[in-house]
Amino acid sequence: GAGVSQSPRYKVAKRGQDVALRCDPISGHVSLFWYQQALGQGPEFLTYFQNEAQLDKSGLPSDRFFAERPEGSVSTLKIQRTQQEDSAVYLCASSESGISTDTQYFGPGTRLTVL
Amino acid sequence: DQQVKQNSPSLSVQEGRISILNCDYTNSMFDYFLWYKKYPAEGPTFLISISSIKDKNEDGRFTVFLNKSAKHLSLHIVPSQPGDSAVYFCAALTVYNQGGKLIFGQGTELSVKP
Lengths: 115, 114
What we know:
The complex is a heterodimer of chains A (115) and B (114). In chain A, the strands form 2 sheets. In chain A, strands 2, 4, 5, 6, 9, 10 and 11 form a 7-stranded mixed beta sheet that branches. Chain A has a 4-stranded antiparallel beta sheet with strand order 1-3-8-7, with no helix packed on it. Chain A is globular. Chain A is mostly beta strands and 115 residues long. By secondary structure, chain B is mostly beta strands. In chain B, the strands form 2 sheets. In chain B, strands 2, 4, 5, 9, 10 and 11 form a 6-stranded mixed beta sheet that branches. Chain B has a 5-stranded antiparallel beta sheet with strand order 1-3-8-7-6, with no helix packed on it. The chains are: A mainly beta (115), B mainly beta (114). At the A-B interface, strand 4, strand 5, strand 9 and strand 10 of A face strand 5, strand 9 and strand 10 of B.
C-alpha cells in the first residue's frame, strides 16, 4: 500500500470490553510505533517494535495494554477491560529502518470511544 | 512534566505574511527536533527537522531555528498560504535511543486567512 493504514477508523466500546486495533505499516518498514493522542494533546508514545521484537514498551499505561507484531509486519494493539480514560485516538507509525532519525510515517489513527 | 511545550494553542495569520510557531523543551538529552503538520481526521505528516549540531534548517517556505542555550525552537512559514491551516506539532528525540521515540508538544492550530 501507499501509506500506513489502520482499522477500524472508529471504535465504540462499552466499559469493560476488550478491543483490538490493527496497523498495516508501509511494506518493508522495519520500525513500528504506537502513540496515544488524547483530545487537545499531542501524541504520546506507547511502544516500539523493530521487526517482530518489541524493544520499548515504556509508554504502555497499564498491563491492560498489549501490543504484538508476530511476523514483523502487521501490528495489533489490544486493550483489555477498557476504561473511559482509554478514550483517545491511537496512532500507528512506521519507519524504514531502526535508525532513530528516520522519518516516521503516520496512519490516520483509530478513534476509540469508551462509554 | 511536559518535556516539550507549545504554549500557544492557536495562531491566526493573514495570507502572505509570516507564521512563527514556537516550541520549548526541558530535556537537555534531546538532540533532534521535528515539526509535524496535522489535518483533521488524518495522521501527522512530517514537515522538517533539525539536528542539535545546527541552528537553522530551511526547506522551501519552511525554516526551523534552534536555540540550544534557550532550549527553544521555532518554525517560520513564509509566505503563509491558506493550505497551511492545520495543527502543527513540535517533537523531539534522543538520537542514541533505539528506534526514535518521539516526544510531542501539545500542538498549535494555525489559521491562515485569505
